Amino acid sequence: xxxxxxxxxxxxxxxxxxxxxxxxxxxxxxxxxxxxxxxxxxxxxxxxxxxxxxxxxxxxxxxxxxxxxxxxxxxxxxxxxxxxxxxxxxxxxxxxxxxxxxxxxxxxxxxxxxxxxxxxxxxxxxxxxxxxxxxxxxxxxxxxxxxxxxxxxxxxxxxxxxxxxxxxxxxxxxxxxxxxxxxxxxxxxxxxxxxxxxxxxxxxxxxxxxxxxxxxxxxxxxxxxxxxxxxxxxxxxxxxxxxxxxxxxxxxxxxxxxxxxxxxxxxxxxxxxxxxxxxxxxxxxxxxxxxxxxxxxxxxxxxxxxxxxxxxx
Length: 313
Hints:
By secondary structure, this protein is an alpha+beta fold. It is 27% helix and 19% strand.
C-alpha cells in the first residue's frame, strides 16, 4: 500500500484548486488501498441489505451527544434502510471510528499528503469519512449544494477528497461549478440538525439549482471520467452535485473523506453537522482542533509539511 501519491502532486494541481476550487488528482491510491476499502464496504453493505445496525460508534460518544445519538438512531432505523434500498442510493459515515480498514486508510494512506500539498496547509488532520454508493441503474441525483454552511467551523481548509473506488463515468461523477469557492454566501444546509432549527431565508438563502444554468456560458461545469484510486479535491465552498448511475451492470462506489488544515477554528452553530466525540456543547468557539486534550485521537495529524521535507533530505 502506497504511503505517498503514486503520481506526485503537481503545480498544475495546486493552481487548479486555487483557480477553480476543485482539482482532479490522478493515481493517488494504489489498488491495494482500493481493494481494502471495497472489502470493508462489502461487509457494511451486507449488513445494510440484511437490515442490521451499521453504525458502531463508541457508547460514550452517543451518551454525551443527544444530537449525534438521534442522527445515528434515524440512520440505523429499518425505515431508513428500506428507503435507501428502494432508491439504490446507499452509504454510511464515520466508519473510521470503528472499522479497522477505514481507520488504517485515514491514518496511513497518502490522502493527508495529497490534501495538504494541494491546499497549502502545513499540517493536515483527519475529520471524518462517508461512503456514497449509487447502485447499478440508480436514478437518484445528488442535489446542488456546498458543504461549508454545514461545517461547525470557520476557515477555508476543510476540503473533501472524493475518491473513486470503482470506474466512474463523467455522467455519474461528482460535478462541480468552477470558481464557486469565491462565493461567501452562507446558504442553509440540509443537515440532520438543520431540520429542528428555524430557517431565516433572508439571512440564509437556499442553494442555487445549477441544472437551470447549464446553458449559461458564464457557468463552468467540471466532472471527470475516473479510475479506482483517482480522487477529486473539493473546496468546502464549491457548489457540487452528482448525476445518477446509468450503468446497468456496475455500482458507482465513492468514498468522501474530510480533512482539517491550519486555519480551521470551531464554530458550533446549531444547524451544523455533528462531530463524533465532540458535541456542539463541548466545542469552544474559536478554538483549534488540537487544542483540547484528546483532540489528537479524534482529529489525528496525518501529514506535516516539515516532517515530509526532512524525510526527503
